[in-house]
Amino acid sequence: MNLLPRAAQCSSSSILLPRLGYPAATLATKSSNQKQYLVNEALVQAIRKRACHIPPQEIQVRLLQHPNSTQLLSLPQAVQLSVQQKLDLIGISLQQEIPVIRMENWKSFLYKQEKESSHPKRKTIKEIHLQPKIADHDLERKLQQVTKFLEKGHICVLKMPLLLLDTVLQQLPSFAELMHPPQIEGQKALIRVHAK
């Protein structure tokens, strides 16, 4: 009979991995640039600590092996599978009711994460149409929209009648820069603007 309090029973439970022959060198948490990931033994310890009221053989995890394949396994089965395939267990979402873990080589996982974070977001193009009979206040509001878009790093395309071209060019914010000379087609003009 165990006389330890409930919390002590949870924290003193034996670690699952050494019995399965998993290398003990991967105990620490590993981190990429922005997010920390629990890997291998540290992951198993965290899952067991979180679900300490459940026997270790009954703890369920959702295992991601390939982009489209997920399996619902017990934690010992997931560990055994990763040992057999010589891959790392990486904690993806441990806050779920059933923790989500990925089975993948740690270095290739890190490489993919760094590759995704290194690609900058593409600038989106915002189109603004101005009507020929636009009121002064409405024109002001449209140019305020242009200013907000430029501050966020977007490219703005303004389509307007030729009569408004000079007015709009004078009222554009000081940090706005024309990407190309205005395109004029008949009575319509088009300008592309980005922040300097």
From TrEMBL:
Keywords: Initiation factor, Protein biosynthesis
Keyword Aminoacyl-tRNA synthetase annotated: no
NCBIfam families attached to this UniProt entry: infC
Domain Translation initiation factor 3 N-terminal: 60-117
Protein name per the record: Translation initiation factor 3 N-terminal domain-containing protein
Record-level Gene Ontology MF annotations: ribosome binding; translation initiation factor activity
Family in the record: Belongs to the IF-3 family.
Matching InterPro entries: T_IF-3_C_sf (IPR036788), T_IF-3_N_sf (IPR036787), Translation_initiation_fac_3 (IPR001288), Translation_initiation_fac_3_N (IPR019814)
Keyword Ribosomal protein attached: no
UniProt-listed GO biological process terms: ribosome disassembly
